[in-house]
């Protein structure tokens, strides 16, 4: 079954490039485009897309405000917010508005397809460099070396998985990196969250960052999704 996509960006060339990226996968189809947040909400109401690729900075109504409006739909789409900035101070705003991910615009077709599949499956996707901005806003200066409560109760695999969550990896990427099945990774994630008293992966990423674990299991660059 083909998933429908709405592309939102105030620059025609960016929309054209994203349309080509989406078109590279037979699993996704662009059903509409919009040049600002207000038009995005109107197009989403008319076409009911499964995924919205949302520019964060646009005139009139920006991507954060548009995302918040889309979340009021009875069946809201999955919103992936895109930025052209290395560090964007709207990261936390977009996620709090209901976005499922925050990525750079210079994506490869594989990265974009993977991100869209991830959010449709109920996951989140945050580019590693963007994750750093999110964590710094949420926690203030990192307290590298601090040991949060419960961390000493984690087994070796749970600790490695936590470190990779802190670096922004999805379960599929963690599975490949550690040579595990995705089912095993999911189990380790669930155990780690339970032992640490956390509700979600964002909290786990923040804890890993505070403890100085993020990035200890792999070298990151901005091309990872």
TrEMBL record:
<dbReference type="Pfam" id="PF00196">
    <property type="entry name" value="GerE"/>
</dbReference>
<feature type="domain" description="Response regulatory">
    <location>
        <begin position="4"/>
        <end position="120"/>
    </location>
</feature>
<feature type="domain" description="HTH luxR-type">
    <location>
        <begin position="147"/>
        <end position="212"/>
    </location>
</feature>
<dbReference type="InterPro" id="IPR000792">
    <property type="entry name" value="Tscrpt_reg_LuxR_C"/>
</dbReference>
<dbReference type="InterPro" id="IPR058245">
    <property type="entry name" value="NreC/VraR/RcsB-like_REC"/>
</dbReference>
<keyword id="KW-0238">DNA-binding</keyword>
<keyword id="KW-0804">Transcription</keyword>
<dbReference type="InterPro" id="IPR011006">
    <property type="entry name" value="CheY-like_superfamily"/>
</dbReference>
<dbReference type="InterPro" id="IPR039420">
    <property type="entry name" value="WalR-like"/>
</dbReference>
<keyword id="KW-0805">Transcription regulation</keyword>
<protein>
    <submittedName>
        <fullName>Response regulator</fullName>
    </submittedName>
</protein>
<dbReference type="Pfam" id="PF00072">
    <property type="entry name" value="Response_reg"/>
</dbReference>
<dbReference type="InterPro" id="IPR016032">
    <property type="entry name" value="Sig_transdc_resp-reg_C-effctor"/>
</dbReference>
<keyword id="KW-0597">Phosphoprotein</keyword>
<dbReference type="InterPro" id="IPR001789">
    <property type="entry name" value="Sig_transdc_resp-reg_receiver"/>
</dbReference>
<feature type="modified residue" description="4-aspartylphosphate">
    <location>
        <position position="55"/>
    </location>
</feature>
């Amino acid at each position: 079954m083909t998933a429908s996509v709405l592309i939102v960006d105030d620059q025609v060339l960016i929309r054209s490039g994203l349309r080509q990226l989406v078109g590279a996968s037979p699993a996704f189809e662009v059903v509409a485009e919009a040049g600002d947040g207000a038009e995005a909400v109107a197009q989403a109401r008319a076409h009911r897309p499964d995924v919205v690729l949302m520019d964060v900075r646009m005139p009139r109504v920006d991507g954060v405000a548009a995302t918040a409006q889309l979340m009021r739909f009875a069946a809201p789409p999955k919103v992936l917010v895109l930025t052209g900035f290395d560090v964007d101070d709207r990261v936390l705003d977009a996620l709090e508005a209901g976005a499922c991910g925050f990525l750079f615009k210079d994506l490869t077709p594989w990265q974009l397809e993977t991100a869209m599949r991830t959010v449709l499956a109920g996951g989140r996707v945050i580019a590693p460099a963007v994750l750093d901005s999110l964590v710094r806003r949420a926690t203030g200066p990192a307290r590298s070396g601090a040991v949060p409560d419960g961390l000493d109760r984690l087994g070796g695999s749970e600790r490695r998985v936590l470190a990779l969550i802190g670096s922004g990896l999805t379960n599929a990427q963690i599975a490949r990196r550690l040579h595990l099945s995705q089912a095993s990774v999911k189990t380790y994630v669930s155990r780690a969250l339970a032992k640490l008293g956390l509700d979600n992966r964002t909290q786990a990423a923040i804890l890993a960052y505070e403890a100085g674990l993020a990035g200890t299991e792999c070298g990151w660059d901005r091309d990872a999704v």
